[in-house]
User: Which sequence fits this backbone?
């Protein structure tokens, strides 16, 4: 069986994604064109992925998608096999049209911040291959189901050339600014202050 490419996937799903998102895109100022810049925000406590658009008029919430599965608990990913979803400020490295979970977007975990905080002797021990993906099962990734990942995949395709920031937070600090205490680390306040500052640049109305 031939492998898919981003282009072959877009040929199959872009029209139906355009139909599903067209009205939402129109209401925030676009004329049936996909936004050129997006920001993805995941909240572990709420189990929600939000998609924001960014242009000269500002940053606006486009849509949000519930997680379809969840593993781990609040707190950053510290090592391979801990089942944790990472927490921090990441970016999308590439789109994967041949995922075991239908479609997926690869995060740059571990990033430089993660590497600076690890006490492990090897970066390889921190784990890797963290994705936002389809289906409804996961170990340490963010699953949002097949229809949702189609939409995020198409949006990401049009925005990835400008870079796609991904904020992963234990909770929506704009609504509850309490900082969770996390076992085995003493730098959660530093991490969550960085995340709070990023969230405060976004509108959640």
Assistant:
């Amino acid at each position: 069986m031939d492998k898919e490419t981003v282009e072959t996937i877009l040929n199959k799903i872009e029209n139906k994604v355009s139909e599903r998102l067209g009205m939402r895109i129109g209401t925030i100022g676009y004329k049936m064109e996909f936004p050129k810049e997006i920001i993805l925000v995941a909240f572990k406590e709420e189990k929600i992925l939000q998609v924001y658009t960014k242009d000269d008029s500002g940053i606006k919430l486009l849509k949000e998608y519930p997680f379809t599965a969840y593993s781990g608990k609040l707190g950053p990913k510290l090592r391979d096999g801990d089942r944790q979803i990472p927490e921090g400020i990441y970016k999308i490295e590439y789109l994967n049209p041949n995922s075991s979970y239908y479609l997926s977007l690869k995060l740059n975990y571990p990033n430089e911040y993660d590497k600076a905080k690890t006490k492990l002797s090897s970066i390889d021990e921190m784990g890797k291959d963290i994705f936002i993906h389809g289906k409804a099962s996961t170990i340490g990734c963010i699953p949002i189901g097949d229809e949702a990942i189609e939409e995020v995949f198409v949006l990401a395709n049009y925005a990835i050339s400008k870079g796609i920031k991904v904020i992963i937070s234990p909770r929506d600090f704009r609504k509850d600014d309490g900082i969770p205490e996390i076992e085995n680390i003493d730098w959660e306040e530093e991490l969550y202050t960085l995340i709070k500052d990023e969230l405060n640049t976004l509108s959640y109305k």
